[in-house]
Structure formats: C-alpha cells, structure tokens
Protein 1
Amino acid sequence: MIRIAIVAPCGPVNQDSLRAGKRNLLSHFPNCEFIEAPNLDRESGFLAGTDQERIDSLRWAFESSDADIIWIARGGFGAVRIALCMPWTDFAAESRARLVGYSDATLLLSSFAQAGGTAIHGPMIAADIARGFEDERTWNSIERLILSNDKKLNDDFLFEGRVLNNLPVKIDGRILAGNLTVFASTAGTKIFPSTKDKVIFLEDVNEEPYRVERALCQLLLSGFFDEAKAVVFGNFSNCIAETPERSFT
Amino acid sequence: MIRIAIVAPCGPVNQDSLRAGKRNLLSHFPNCEFIEAPNLDRESGFLAGTDQERIDSLRWAFESSDADIIWIARGGFGAVRIALCMPWTDFAAESRARLVGYSDATLLLSSFAQAGGTAIHGPMIAADIARGFEDERTWNSIERLILSNDKKLNDDFLFEGRVLNNLPVKIDGRILAGNLTVFASTAGTKIFPSTKDKVIFLEDVNEEPYRVERALCQLLLSGFFDEAKAVVFGNFSNCIAETPERSFT
C-alpha cells in the first residue's frame, strides 16, 4: 500500500471535491490508502483553520503520519503565514515522505526542497484530481512520478514547447517549479528560494496581464533569474485582461 | 502663475478625463498654467506609450519643463518598468519641482523623495481631480499642500482615525505614503524604500482581502515595518471579497 497523508495548509477544502479526488485516485490506483489531517474540514475565512491548526496538521503529517506521500488538498492562500514556522530541515531529515502540490503551496514545496526533501509540483487531490483528467498520460505521470517516485524519466514525458530565447535545445538541471505570483511575493523575505543552476517552471491562474508583468518585474529586479539555467512558462490559466483593448497579448 | 507639467509615466490617459481635470483645477485655481508631456495621448496596451517614451517624458518634465509641479495624470501600471532608469539624484538636485501622484506612481514618489526631492502623495489630474471633490476641504488641501507647498499644517488637516495599536497618540516623523501592493512589489529590489523613522501611510484599491494580506505579509517579512514609527491605513477602496462567506472582514 502507498500511504498518503492529505493535508490542508492553505485554503479551506470543499468536502465534495475531497471525496471526488480520493475516489478518482483510488479508481486508478487501488493500492492507495488515505489518512487525513485534523484540519481537513476546518474553515476560517479563506483559510483551512487557524494558523496553529494548519501548522499542527503539517507537523502531524511530517512527524507522525508515517506517510509515503504528503499530498496537499488544494491551494488558495495561507502558506506564507506558516512557511517560516516549519522545521523544514528536520522534516527533510526525519521523514521519507515526498510533498506534492502547487499554486499557493509553492512556498512549502520550495522550502522543503531547499532543506533537502523531495517536493513534487503536481496536481492536488481536492482540485485537479477531483475534476479528473481526460488523458491517460496524466494518470501515468501521477503513477510514475508521484506514486512510484520514479526519477528516471524517458521520452514519454517530453512535452511540446516553444523556445522563446536563443537557449540551447538541451539543458540539464534540477527543477524549481511554482506559481509566479507566489514566488514574487517571497522576494525580500527569508523564504525566497535559491534558483542557482535551476530550471525554473512557472505557472499562474486568474491574474490580469499587468499583474503577471508586475510579478515578472519583481523577480527580474530581485535577481530570481540571474543564475537560473532556464525558465519555462507553463499554463497561465485565465490570465486575461478584463479590458483586452487596453492590454497586451 | 504656477507652472504645472502633466506627465503620464504609468497607464494611458483618457483625454476626456484629462480635459475635465484641467478644467476643474483651473476653475478653483485660475493661476495654474499647464504644459503637457509628449506622451500624454499615447497608448500602448496598458501603458501610456513605450518605456522609452515614458522615460523621455519624465526626463523632459524634470530637466527642461521648468515646472513648479510635475503632476502625474493617472496611475495604473508601468512605473516599475522605468523607475530604475531615472537619475533621481540629479532630478532632486537640479529641479525645484515637486512631484505629485499616488497609486502606481508610488515608486516614482518614493524614489524621488529618497533622493531628496519633494514628493506629495496626492490626487491626480486625469483621475480624482477629473471627477471633482464635493468638499471644499480637499480643494483647500490641494491649494496649501500642493500649489503653495505650505508645510506648516495646522488643525484643519486633522482627520478622524482609529488607533489599532497601543501607540502613543502623538507621533512625529516624515511621511512615506503609497500603495500597499506597489510597495510589496518592490520588496527584494533596489527601489524598495527605506522606512526608517517614517510614518507610513498605506492605501489600495480593487484588491481582494487575501491579496491585501499577502502584500502585508511580504512587507512584514521583508522588514518594511521594522524601523517605522507608525503605520496608518488609509482608504482601501473596493478591497472586498468576491465570495465574502469565504473571507475575513
């Protein structure tokens, strides 16, 4: 069995989505078993419970859940309020678990990875996984990258892209993946991740083009891209202008 | 006559608003004369012309317009793209002009003030002034603070507030005023303003509560408040949640 601890360090979790996500995962991978953080049904404004409840739940997952995977239920907002309170180095040293999520969870992933843990920028149980995927390829990736933690990727994982700069076509490097706005919101703070020799993947959702530009400016001016090997732009979902005639494409 | 150079270093200027703003100012203060930056009618997506056009226009205002006041027409977005290209120290040393604006122009004001210039966080010609003010008090403030540059304020300028912290009731200090999100977007960069011994005034508009919180977190974690004397929260217009049941008040 693969032991999965579901945690909610960011926004409150819709219980129907949580059930749908678990059902979808189980129907593809019957060898999963779930244990749930105590705050999974908590709601405090736009947070899944108080800061202390969310901190305690993450500690529970890393320190006593004995999980193979600590899987973040959903993003939203709230990671920045607790990311600095976590003993990431202890977590990385004492837990075998890999941490999975994206969006607002970016900060937790990058902090854990920086401390030596395995962080996987991947779909979340009460979000994408609850909605399901039409292509088998995504389920295959979940199996190999997340469930089996198979780091030997082959050509199946190639995806189509467009080279925007005059970079060489082949680049090796560790991946640092995350949400553009969240990375920008850590500039100037102690949780701003190191990007040295990294291949940076960026995504975002629901940000107007001028906000995307502002975040890119902040990262540019704070040195985020200076020592990176490459930058890859992933999905920027619904990042469209409210008044397109007053924007750029 | 008071010589006013109108500039557009941020978003594109609505020409009707510009006319209305000039008309409103003139009807209250017939001793104003206006000269206009070459890019005042330019529009390039969400910017008032290219970066170079906006840079050239600001340089024109400081270097050759011979203005008493350099008045920013409107905010929007774009200041961060050019703020680092400006010779602020030369501007402050060689021009007598005071710079007026707010919102996205925050960066220009704080850079100019930091270099020793006089920056006034005040209404903008093609924005608030175009819409007009119902109370004479605002027009009086414009006359005394901006047009006459009278720094000796008296009780007329007191405004109602609520003390949130256990601060003493009377605090002296230079004011640093600006847009919360814009200040946050300079964290980690060279244009992050010094707040030592300052009384910080913050405002914002059209930001969801979680965005306000994220910006406050970033400023907190990057030391923005550490050496300030006080923080004053001004108007946070339309900073309301799209789904209020999932937010805080």
Protein 2
Amino acid sequence: LIAPAIARAADDPLPSWNDSRSRTAILDFVGRVTKEGGPDFVPLDDRIAVFDNDGTLWSEQPVYFQVFFALARVKQLYPEHPEWENLEPFKSAISGDLKSLAATGEKGVLKLVMASHAGMTTEEFAQIVVDWITTARHPRFNRLFTELVYQPMLEVLNLLRANGFKTYIVSGGGIEFMRPWTEKIYGIPPEQVIGSSIKTRFEMKDGKPVLQRLPEIDFIDDGLGKPVGIYKFIGRRPIFAAGNSDGDLQMLQWVTGGKGARFGMIVHHTDEKREWAYDKQSSVGKLDKALDAATGARWAVADMKWDWRKIYPFSS
Amino acid sequence: LIAPAIARAADDPLPSWNDSRSRTAILDFVGRVTKEGGPDFVPLDDRIAVFDNDGTLWSEQPVYFQVFFALARVKQLYPEHPEWENLEPFKSAISGDLKSLAATGEKGVLKLVMASHAGMTTEEFAQIVVDWITTARHPRFNRLFTELVYQPMLEVLNLLRANGFKTYIVSGGGIEFMRPWTEKIYGIPPEQVIGSSIKTRFEMKDGKPVLQRLPEIDFIDDGLGKPVGIYKFIGRRPIFAAGNSDGDLQMLQWVTGGKGARFGMIVHHTDEKREWAYDKQSSVGKLDKALDAATGARWAVADMKWDWRKIYPFSS
Ligand SMILES: [Ca+2]
Ligand SMILES: [Ca+2]
C-alpha cells in the first residue's frame, strides 16, 4: 500500500483536482476570504465570482456549441427559405461545411445568428433552445452538449457557493442561448447569466404582451465588453474570475485589479486525448495575451492534462 | 371601547395599510402563490417582483430626486466651467430655476445629466452619489431624500421577501444613481436594480483597470423599455409589478399578461397634505393611460390618502 502524497478528507470539495498549485491556490483563497477577523476577510455581499462559459465551464471544439445550434436551426428553417440554397453563409451551414462557413467570416456568422436567433418571441426562443439542448449530440463524443461540462469546474462552483459566493456566467455567447439550462447544469439561475444579446421589442401579439427578438446586436459581451457587462448587470466588482481565452483578459484584469483579496484563473486546454489541446494559434478560444499576462498577474493556470483527474462528469 | 373593524394580528405584515381593497388583494395574492398544492402555487424560483422607484417607493416631487442631484453636481463643477454662466441648461441649473430648466426640454435635461453623471470612473461616481445622498435634504421636508420612502411599500417589499420573493427595482432613473444606497434603504442589492444607463468603457488609468463613464446613452429603462430591461437582466417574466405612472404601463401589461397568478399594482398620489396629489395632468409621474387600464386589467390601485395610514417612516 502506498499512502497518497497528501491525505484527502472524505469531504474533499475538489475531488477531481490533482494536488496541483491551482488546486491549492483556490482552496487557500476561499479559506482566506471566509476567515472572519482575518486580514483578507470579505463580507458575504461582496463574494461574487464570474465564470466564462465556452472553454471554461464546457468544451468549445471543434466550434462553439452555439454554432451547432445555429446550424441545426438553419437546417430546420431551410424549407421556408429556398433562397438559401445558393446563398452564403446558409449554403455552407445547410451542407454542414464548417470550413466554408468559417471562410464567410464574422459577417457570415452574424447573418447566421440573426437568421437563427431572431424573429420569434423570447418565450418561443427559450423553447427552441430547450428542444435542441436536450436532444442534440456532440459529433465526437455522441453525448448531449450539456454532458461536456468540466467536472472540476462544477466542483469549484459548488465550493464557492458553499462558502457564500454568488456565481455568475459572463460569456461572449448568447445570453438567451444559455439561460434556459444553466440552472439545471451549473446551478446558476438565469438572472446570474451575462452574455451577448440581440435587441428585443415589446409588442402586443394576438392581444398578448410579448417581447419579440430583433435581428440587431444589442451588446457584445467579450473582451473589453466583459467588465462593462459585469458592472452593468451586477453593479459591483467581483473578487473571483475564471476564463480560458484572450476574450477574458480585461475581465481578469478588472476583477483582480480591485482592492483586497482577488483571484484570477485560466483554464489551459492541454489534453488532446481526453479533451482538446490548443492555445496561441487556435481560432476558437485563442489563449495568447492572457496566458502571457497570467504569470505577472499571478493568476492560477489550471493545466487540464496535469491538474484534472477527470474532465467530464461521465469520464471514468 | 370600540373594536377595530377587522382584528389585526400582532405580527400584521402591513401595519401601515388601512383595511382597503388593495391591502386585501396583496395579502390574498401572497397567500395564493405560496400555498403548496394550491391551484395558484408558484415555485420559489419564479417568485420575482419588480418595483418602479420614483413615485412608487419614494417621492418624486417637485422634480425627480435625481434632478436635485444633477443640479447640486453642476453647481459643484461650475468653478471649472465658467462657460456655463450664460449657457442653458447650466445657467438655470446653477441659479436653481426649475421652471427655466424645464423649458430647456429633454435636450436640456440630457445635457445636464451628461455633464453631471459622466467623465469619471464608476467607483468615483458611486462615491459622489453616496456623498450627496447622505447629506442633501429635500426642500419641503428638510429630510434626507432617502427618508422620503413610503413605509407601506417597505412593508410590501418585506412581506414579499419573507415569502420567498426576489425583489427588484425597475426604474427610469439612473441605475448607478440608485445602486449605492438601495440595499441599505430598501433591502435591494445592486444586482437587483435595473434602470437607465450611460455607456462605460474599460480603461487602464494610472496602471489600474477602471470603467470610465461616457456621456452617451446606453439604455432608457422607461415605458416600452421596462419589459425589455427586465428580461435582459432577469431572463424571466416576474409575477408581481408595482408602478405609479404611464412609464410603467408596458411593464404592468407584460408582467400581468403571463400565465398563472399575477399581480399588478399602481400607487395613486392622492394626498396633497401628507405627500402630493397628481395624476393625469402632471409633468412628473404622469398617470393617465395606466390608470384607465387598471380597471380592465384588475390591477390594485393603492390610494395614498385612503389606503395608507402612514406615508414616510418618520410620519406619526
Ligand atoms: Ca471562453
Ligand atoms: Ca415612477
């Protein structure tokens, strides 16, 4: 029998984490901010933690999961839009040609989002999302997309909440694409989800008041937009932030740049066998400047391959 | 000895309310939605209540209190802006001439807001608000503005929260003008305050990350904007809404237009002796269409003069 390097309590809050520096740093931070009378104590009201979603709480390869949703939706709408047959980006979307789709650039993706995410009421859209997210499967794992969430990060969410933190998602993804399922999957209710949005308009439809989704950008919650979105929705500066790409750089800077104890964390995708390995050269979830900044800023870097015993809840 | 018409329990949750129809309606609604197994039961997560602020939770005469704040701020900044001496709306603002100021119209007020609310970091602005709100006094009552909150409405907020409701402010006023003090005064934390906003920009200032307030409108949370703002921030349709003017009409329609038990409420200013009396003809807090709609929609109308025993917490 070999004794484990560090004995783990039966109620270990982070069982899917190896005994890594990032694990120690998380536990140390939570211990310090919750220690009454200690120099780093933070009152309950200010215990706010923000998490990026794609690549931080769930996978994002080979494309953001919301792109799979948009593709499915466009296919569904195709019979009503015969003009899409030879029109990009719809042509590539319908044939499932991700490469040609990528070649249509940001403008192409925007057209796809507007065609698939607007033109219905908010309640209709929520139902469309639920129908997709409870049935669609990821091509590599043949699992529901919501099964591809990171077990170690679920444990961090639970640990923080057990210590009085309010946990938020702050994603570049669509706010209404996430809200219908985040409570069930992450324990994060809709009002604690911040994301990119399109505009809505109040209307009377068949005599009933509804909000109609318009094909017009309202807010892009990415990069410089993340601190802006956080302050708009929460009105306070959080003390904990986790992200995985350069789109999280300003959020990490702003959150960890406040007074008192602060925690910044980056999920580094290093495990091509169990998940994916990518950083500086990736078109999805590019992690370059934020990785360089991590050392100087003393952000914890969770190395997926070495720090995580388990990736997904279903993993052995 | 005369027995009271209806005996009140010692733990009466609405002691400042007379035995009115609106009081009965509120208690009845709370009883129905919290009765497990009952036909109108609403699960905890969906117990969301939204309250307009000006004229619903605190007074708004002779002008919105935020206008007093803007005037004080312009006076404070005047030494740095000698050009304001003969320039409207600043000239009227500095001399405190509310009539001339009103004559400058929406454009004038907008200029005043931008000059007084932008050009500093979010943290600096919060401090400016705190400095003012803890010292400035209302000209009629010579009380802090935060003393001019309605005791009966504080009781409604407490009653709802005691029954598992999450209470939100949804105001046409400035979101960052309210957030620094709503928790202390109403028990409503900053993240449960929705309001009008100006844009902010992430910047490094003296090497520190800050959000700079820009002189540019981001969102007007009034009228048609209220349901939009609610859904953007909360992602659900509340089941309880209270307002006092036509700016709350669409919010009331949308909230009470959902399925299941719903409650709409209008505060009607009818007491010129203890507070103010105004409705259809008022330039501040105009209540016309929403009052007409109340009957058909079966919204409770709280008549200040007859329904409220007490107006302010300091009233006898
Ligand atoms: Ca990400
Ligand atoms: Ca009002």
